[in-house]
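Exercise 7. Predict the structure of Cyclopropane-fatty-acyl-phospholipid synthase from Clostridium tyrobutyricum DIVETGP.
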Amino acid sequence: MDLDKIFYRKFLKGAFSDPVKVRYWDGTEEDYGDGQPKFEIIFNSHIPKKKILRDPFLTLGESYMDKTLDFKGNIREIIESVYKSNGSFLHNAGAFSRLYKVIPNTIKKSREDIQYHYDVGNDFYSLWLDKTMTYSCAYFKNEDDSLYDAQINKVNHILKKMDLKEGQRLLDIGCGWGELIIAAAKQYGVNAVGITLSEEQYSKVKQRIKENNLEDKVEVRLSDYRELVKNKEKFDRIVSVGMIEHVGRKNLHYYMEGVNSMLVQGGVSLLHCITAQTESEVNEWIKRYIFPGGYIPSIRELVSLMADNNLHLVDVESLRLHYYKTLKIWAENFENALDEVSKIKDDRFIRMWDLYLNACSASFHYGVMDVHQFLFTKGLNNELPMTRKKLYED
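Solution. The predicted structure, encoded as tokens:
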């Protein structure tokens, strides 16, 4: 008996909450679980057990990219089935992440990491994002909202929370392709500054500002937030959507100190970010291939840092199921656009992104990830609305 196959039988037997068929590299097949198999796992070639034991996240991710491992069935549902199994390795990323050295996120490294992910091409992102090019959790007010509707909802939800006033100065840290700063200037008459480390995003935002004739109200800079802190710039409002995940655990305090130093007294900040229940590094496959330098902060880490900087938390909202639905739509859009994607990206890249989008969707549906919006003020602010009423008024 192949010793590696004995290991795989034990590893796979309790890995899924649904019945599954496994086809091994020697052509033999085995069913695990009771009933008709819902999925099929295919080992096209042998994967040594020592690689799985060392780091199943990295090994299985790379194996799928390289076609050593394949699936029959919906990838998201397969990963959800693994998450729903209590003994799954997917619940223990931190144990494997400790094997790897964490490199501090200097300004130079942050720029390189951001460009690695976001500068794969505006043409690529435009194939599966909505027309606003918004690459963060949407907000589905209604069950039948389109992705575009939900992204507009999200921007409006954030702008309402910040209680913007005409003439105020707004900073968007990690402004993406610019939808929020453009909407803020148009709807509220604020003077908006967006910063990004992505040259592709910077170019697109400059174009959008010009197309909307907002050169006197909106500015975009290819800059790190730490450079603005150094220049002692001040803002009435600061927003950040999906950026702090790139800061790194060792730099979280720099971010919160920076926001504190840039906000005027009584100023308001909204932080929209992916959160973890407890503290641990993200798995090595994500760090190596998707988000170099990434770290998902826990809720208590963020709240503690707010308190340390006299930043008063006034509102917290979980959007976990909204992000599940957003990612599910992105994955479907991506898969529906494979003919076009294949014209600009190779097969390994395509399999990597397909796995990434579906795995993330699964992790927000049945896994360990959440996404929150934190609203906080510098010192006390008694001018904000006392209820959420206006958030739900059209």
